[in-house]
Amino acid sequence: MIEINHFEEVTQIKLSQTMNGQPLYWAATYLVDGLLIDTGPKHTAEELVEFLEGQNVKFAVNTHHHEDHIGANHLLQQRLGIKIFAHPKAIPLINQVPKLLPYQETVWGYPEPTRVSPLPENIRTDHFHFEVLETPGHSVGHIALLEPQKGWCFSGDLFVNEKPKAFRPHEDIAETIKSMKKLVELQTERLILFTALGKIIQDGRKNLKICIEYLEDLSQKAKNLAKKGLSVSAIREELIGEDTSLAPLTDGDFSADNLIRSILLPKK
User: Fold this and answer.
1) Residues in Cβ contact with 54 at an 8 Å cutoff, skipping those fewer than 6 apart
2) pLDDT of residue 268
3) Of the candidates 165, 192, 167, which has an alpha carbon nearest to the alpha carbon of residue 266?
4) Whole-angstrom distance, CA of residue 260 vs CA of residue 231
5) The domain 2-163+171-206: what is its CATH number?
6) Rounded to two decimals, what is the model's pTM?
7) What are the structural domain ranges in the chain?
8) Banded model confidence at residue 200, pLDDT cuts 50, 70, 90
9) How many CA atoms lie within 13 A of 131 on its CB side?
């Protein structure tokens, strides 16, 4: 399934595998002035490329290596011959077959390994200039793209909502907070977040600040409870309540317990 929306000079392309005619999980890519930001899941690669064949796409950027962001890389290179860029730390991960859990295979599919090029510090299109910002936390090699004059920030999966209740095991809460603070401090008149879930947030600074405050408060409370000897699940119950309904559907891969673990067991 594909859905096209427009915001200023940006075209949003939302993509999803379907079940009984309904979308399972939206993933958004963005096209602006010949630049494609992320390529969506493998399951929707054909639909994306068919839409882009008349759009004068010149090159693409992967914000990070996850399967819902690189799934059409191979087909885009094969059909349109475009060059694709990513953070150097993401490049070897994009050029290998990922290890997916059953839910990931069902919802997004296995992307084919692709060779991509390292991102420069800046990207220029015919009419716009994008700064490449390193924003780790959700994954290694995660980046955001900023068009400072427009205040457009293509933030990948760094920001999901103001009060996230669940993480995947590899996510790093300390790095996530640091990356969010980097965006808040950008010297732009406005900061519009174009998120990978399809939300376009016009007051990005406000939403990021709410999320930072929430995560910092949650972190402090979790650490205090851990000092009293409470387990991860007990802390989660105290601070968040029942785990997300997605936890059992993802075999615990996406869960509130993982959010608490990220606080108490920081990544090395």
Assistant:
1) none
2) 58
3) 167
4) 10
5) 3.60.15.10
6) 0.95
7) 2-163+171-206
8) very high
9) 16
